[in-house]
Amino acid sequence: MINFILGLFSYDLAIDLGTANTLVYVRGKGIAIRENTAVARSKRARETLAIGSAAAKMLGKTGKSIEVVRPLRAGVISDYSAAAVLLTHFIHKVHQSGTFHPRIPRPRVVIGIPSSINEVERKAVREVALKAGARKVYLVPETVAAAAGVIKNFSLESVAAVIDVGGGTTDIALISSGREVESVSLRTAGDKMDADIIEFVKLRYSLLIGEPTAERTKIALADARPAKDVFQVIRGRDLESGLPRSVKISNFEIYNALKSSFDEIVEASVALFEGAPPELISDIMQSGVILSGGGALIKNLDVVLSQALNIKVKLAEDPLTAVVRGCAKLLSDRPLLKKVSHV
Fold first, then answer.
1. Are 289 and 303 in contact (CB under 8 A)?
2. Over the Cα atoms of the chain, what is R_g?
3. Burial of 78 (C-beta count, 10 Å sphere; 0-12/13-18/19+)
4. Can you give the pTM of this predicted structure?
């Protein structure tokens, strides 16, 4: 009864709890939070020092007494307490922005999850959300959520193919009747690409760079089919002298560093389509494939996938928010939500 009463004064929320970034959509208001999925805390006292983007800015810049943790790895909760702290903070932050708000918010929450996570991992996500204050939790596969976010009149009759390249996972799925008919989830995604860039720079230039620098380099130079030179200066620590040093790196070098990741995503997509029901493929050939997630912004990735699949691959409008917008759309259609979600 208390949860019900508090729920009357709480905002219903759609959440894309990603490995790299977390987005929170407030029903009737839009996206209220876009922050890094990170928590900074003292190692000794385990006291929380910063959350979200403020914590991410501390990555690689703290002393031994402070650690910056990312509560999710490959879309799965790897640090339960940090995930609960982060989600609780965001839920309370959203409710504090209103004129009237409960001290203990009890919202209904829809969360996008990777296709591959098992029941134990789903239970962990649900328990974290409940601990953070949710009174009801719906878990929706990210590919289904992305399809709902992109297709204007998404319903159980909708047929879709989605390639969602996130931070921790790349989820590829063929969707019919609101469910994933065929799906595959790869741990080849944004985080692995960052790690590949770090390793490439280390081996090629004997230069050590951090995750933030690798990510900025990826955003600036990653291209699945580079045609002309583009350069960027990166800075790090020389492995031999231990002193600061900078080098100029090209998009062709980054392509070589990331080629194996591009190939894996393409090969997994082709394999999934090759084993799909022919009638489903026929429908998808008419509608095309949706490319979403932060990795969708890599130049020419849609072109390379289109040629490999022989089907038009369309970049989702605002691909970074496709999942959370889909979760929000489902939040407003309770009968459809119940049919496509894991309650």
1. no
2. 21
3. middle
4. 0.90
Contact assessment for residue 62 and residue 68, using Cβ atoms and an 8 Å cutoff: yes
Angle between helix 322-331 and helix 142-150 axes, rounded to 10 deg: 80
Closest CA to 236 of 218, 213, 258, 255: 213
pLDDT in tens, 8-30: 457 899 999 999 999 999 998 99
Helix pair 190-205, 251-274: axis angle to 10 deg: 140
CB 218 within 8 A of CB 198: no
Record the tokens describing residue 327, joined without a space. Answer: 């979760």
Q: What's the rounded Cα separation, in Å, for the pair 137 and 213? A: 36
Q: Which of 65, 71, 78, 26 lies closest to 51, judged by CA?
A: 71
Is the CB of residue 218 less than 8 Å from the CB of residue 301? no
- The torsion angles phi and psi of 76, rounded to 5 degrees, stand at -115, 140
66, 42 Cβ separation under 8 angstroms = yes
Q: What is the pLDDT of residues 324-340, one digit of tens each?
A: 999 999 999 999 999 99
- Give the residue from 56, 122, 124, 51 showing the smallest Cα distance to 91: 51
Q: How confident is the model at residue 105 (pLDDT cuts 50, 70, 90)?
A: confident
Torsion angle of C-alpha atoms 318, 72, 164, 118, degrees rounded to 10: -140
CA 114, 291, 264: angle at the middle one, nearest 5?
Answer: 70
- pLDDT of 251 > 60? The answer is yes
Let me know: does 111 contact 125? Beta carbons within 8 Å.
yes
Whole-angstrom CA distances from 79 to 23, 93, 176, 253 are: 19, 21, 34, 34
Query: CA–CA separation, 204 vs 201, rounded Å?
Result: 5
Q: What distance lies between CA 254 and its chain's CA centroid?
A: 22
pLDDT, tens only, 83-93: 999 999 999 89
Question: Token match 């009968």: residue?
Answer: 335
Grade residue 116 by pLDDT with cuts at 50, 70 and 90.
Answer: confident
